[in-house]
Amino acid sequence: SLTINDVTPDDEGAYLCQANNGVGSGLSKLVQLKVHVGAHFAHKFGSQTVTKGQDVWIECLSLGENPIAIVVTRDGIPFDPNIDNRYEVIRNETNDAFGLRLHIRDTNRRDSALYTCSAHNRYGSDEYNHQIIVQEPPDIPENVRISEISSRSALISWMESFTGNTILTKYRLELKTSANSWQSSDTSVETIAGNENSFTIRGLKPITSYHIRVRAQNKLGFSAYCPDIHFTTQEEEPSGPPLHIQVFPLSARSLAVTFRAPAPETRNGRIQGYYLGYKALEMDTNFMFKKLAINELSNDGNQQNEVNITSLMANTKYAIVVQAFNG
């Protein structure tokens, strides 16, 4: 007997078996071997990465004995090329192969998928998988929020959205005061690594209204900006003193103190009132303080204020201090 392991089409043909023992003419037998080849693919996997808008071709060439049938699925779901005129299927059949060529025009993100060609005939079946990755600029960052707002800083956070099927390289953050446009030279720009999803904004001014926006970037370009986020920083204690402090004697036991509010850029909020302190210079005592609310003064605090101090000691020098407060 003759055993052929791992039969291939090359083994097909006529085999002659002869037997002879030296007596007579001997015996012979002609055996015809027919090799049937099941449907199979020479390669099992392929992939393509393209930019949105480019065309792609998927080649599914099944070898084997015809008739061969090929069915295409996309991410495991039967694929019907007739649903979109961007798809075109070209079939080609030879004696020992059947080819299917899928042409996808003007690719978009929906075409990113695993395409599987399943071939079968009477003698076997096989699969070929082809991964298509369509890349494009990313989508707008999602769920952009401002939190942890203080007088000088705030935290902005966001969620990664569609990356464009490639790595995000960075985020671009722009900040401006509400009074300015985005084209203003005062607009500040921060660049944040693409694997981050939050950033602490520092160097802000107290009680100031800001707008902020952010966009993502990958190797193909930027997303659009997210809608503007508006926030206002908190107040903090005034960083400058009241201005134009003057002291006038009213009598032997009383003084008049006049002053104006701190400079606007040092108020850091709405001035709510003042602490007025006084003590005798030649005595080792602490300052005595009076708390003066704005509504106790003669005006809103932006003009000159006047406060009288009474019940003082006669013929005595006094030190006077005035401190503004807000919040």
UniProtKB/TrEMBL annotation:
Residues 1-34 form the Ig-like domain. Keywords: Disulfide bond, Repeat. GO terms for molecular function: cell-cell adhesion mediator activity. Residues 140-236, 241-327 form the Fibronectin type-III domain. InterPro entries: FN3_dom, FN3_sf, Ig-like_dom, Ig-like_dom_sf, Ig-like_fold, Ig_I-set, Ig_sub, Ig_sub2. PROSITE patterns: FN3, IG_LIKE. The keyword NAD does not apply. It holds the Pfam family I-set. GO terms for biological process: axon guidance; brain development. It comes from the Eukaryota. GO terms for cellular component: axon; plasma membrane. Gene3D superfamilies: Immunoglobulins. This is Uncharacterized protein. The lineage of its organism: Eukaryota, Metazoa, Ecdysozoa, Arthropoda, Chelicerata.
